Amino acid sequence: MATYLVFTRTVTKDQSEMDTYSSKVGPTFKGHTGKPLVAYGAQQILEGPAHEGMVILEFPDKAAAMAWYDSPGYREVREHRFRGADYQTTLVEGL
């Protein structure tokens, strides 16, 4: 069953850390099956608090999503995201 990782950025704290994250995250997908569907496109908040942006990644299943998220390469790179901004990250299974 398709599974999605949804990253919602609420506030940027350190743009240089986010720039580092952005420059290093791409190679972490090598050998993984994640596919970006949304990456900080134009948005209109219809309900709830405003946020800065969103990324949605599609994986074939939960195991594949977690294999990427917990991979050594991504664990190292995501530290820059943790320092650079506040996010809510959600794993959700599709229909």
Characterization of the model:
The chain is α+β, with helices and mostly antiparallel strands and about 100 residues long. The chain has one domain (about 5-95): Alpha-Beta Plaits (2-Layer Sandwich). It is built from 3 helices and 4 strands. The longest helix is centred in the C-terminal third of the chain and has 13 residues, at about 70-85. The N and C termini lie close together (about 5 Å).
Q: Kindly estimate the percentage of residues that lie in beta strands according to DSSP.
A: 25-35%
Q: What would you call the quaternary organization? A: single chain
How would you sum up the major sheet? Answer: 4 strands, antiparallel
Helix/strand class: alpha+beta
Anisotropy-based shape: globular
Give start-end ranges of low-pLDDT stretches: none
Query: Which fold name fills CATH's third level, the topology?
Result: Alpha-Beta Plaits
Tell me the count of domains. 1
- How many DSSP H or I helices? 3
The CATH architecture designation is 2-Layer Sandwich
Distance between the termini: 7 Å
Q: What spatial order of strands do you see in the largest sheet?
A: 2-3-1-4
Mean pLDDT: 97
The helix content is 25-40%
Number of strands: 4
CATH first level = Alpha Beta
Radius of gyration: 13 Å
Order of helices and strands: EHEEHHE
